[in-house]
Amino acid sequence: MQIEQLKLTNYRNYDDLTIDFNNEVNVIIGENAQGKTNLLEAIYLLAFTKSHRTTKEKELIQWEKSFAKVEGILRKRNQSMPLEIVISPKGKKAKWNRLEQRRLSDYIGALNVVMFAPEDLALVKGSPQHRRRFIDMELGQIQPTYIYHLGQYQKILRQRNHLLKQLQRRKHDDYMMLTILTEQLVEHAATILERRFKFLERLREWSHEIHLQISRQKEQLEITYVPTINVLEKANKGKIETIYMEKFRDIQEQEIERGTTLVGPHRDDLAFIVNGRDVQTYGSQGQQRTTALSIKLAEIELIKNEINEYPVLLLDDVLSELDDYRQSHLLHTIQGKVQTFVTTTTVDGIHHDTLNKATIFHVSQGQIQT
């Protein structure tokens, strides 16, 4: 899987840009705030229909312009396929092979992307929200129907929380509606949890071995799912639903008192254990970075295993954050296999054969030179 061409119109600091890419490694060099990350963000947008940097999509549209457009030509299974995302105040439209997709969840999965940026270290040491977002984004692009269940869950969760607030303030006494919303929530929650369990089972297979290699056989990585209910990972959807319903019955008064939903996938977490110790709490910075790198490399192999093609890899200013050994391991792993986009202020100090074969782009104030 490779992106052959990217075209931007009214996007961030790019008025009108068309750029062709190398099918192996593309290095984008420039000072900060010149537009390097905007290119990677545009590729990410083509994959997920959303930015990894902002939830305010109007920020993607140039000042005083009515829309922004990102187009790409994707080479997939030896065929070229056009992709297009248009963002305007009226909303967002996505086209795959020139056909507009009725739902964004029908579009996601056309392009598979793995991004690794300095903020991805928050995957290990940040809040549970970072880890939930990681698993939702990666699972969503290999199982687009997961996005549907997640969207339905979030919609019902908002309705349920609103009702709990009203019950808390005694502005409502409709306990039957609470039961209905709970049953609807549980149906999607059980599907989400079951799929997360299966995804993590596959991620563990790859990340354990990769982490051993990067740590030179010194560290063993385990990934543990931390749910808000007492459930085994091997439980089927029916069993998970039963456990959820029992839990919600037990805590109903507590939820009304608090005015919010206290259990569910929206409150779950992941734990990364290295040699028996929680790396978030007890790990060194080096161990945290090795863990994050192991997970990202495991993502690449997992996606390859799922769809029989390697995803596109986006490395946004991350090489400078890694020491020479981890940097070398990363570049060696992707060499000749994964189309890669690297942003950096300089390639000085990065010594690896992979970069010798790269196409170099220089970015300055939204202008690109090769």
End-to-end Cα distance? 23 Å
Number of helices: 12
β-sheet strand percentage: 15-25%
Strand order of the largest sheet: 2-1-4-5-6-7
Order of helices and strands: EEEHEEEEHEHHHHEHHEEHHEHEHEE
Helix content: 40-55%
Say how many strands there are.
15
Gist?
By secondary structure, this protein is α/β, with parallel strands linked by helices.
Could you characterize what this model shows?
The chain has 370 residues and is α/β, with parallel strands linked by helices. The protein contains twelve helices and 15 strands. It has a six-stranded antiparallel sheet, covered by helices on one side. Strands 8-12-13-3-14-15 form a six-stranded mixed sheet, with helices on both faces. A three-stranded antiparallel sheet has the order 9-10-11. The longest helix has 40 residues, at 175-214. The two termini are 23 Å apart. The relative contact order is 0.17.
Key terms:
370 residues, 15 strands, globular
Helix-strand layout with pairing:
Layout: E1 2-11, E2 14-20, E3 25-29, H1 36-48, E4 68-76, E5 79-88, E6 91-96, E7 99-100, H2 104-107, E8 113-116, H3 122-125, H4 128-142, H5 144-168, H6 175-214, E9 221-226, H7 237-250, H8 252-258, E10 269-274, E11 277-278, H9 279-282, H10 285-307, E12 312-316, H11 324-334, E13 340-344, H12 353-356, E14 359-364, E15 367-369
Parallel strand pairs: 3-13, 3-14, 8-12, 12-13
Antiparallel strand pairs: 1-2, 1-4, 4-5, 5-6, 6-7, 9-10, 10-11, 14-15
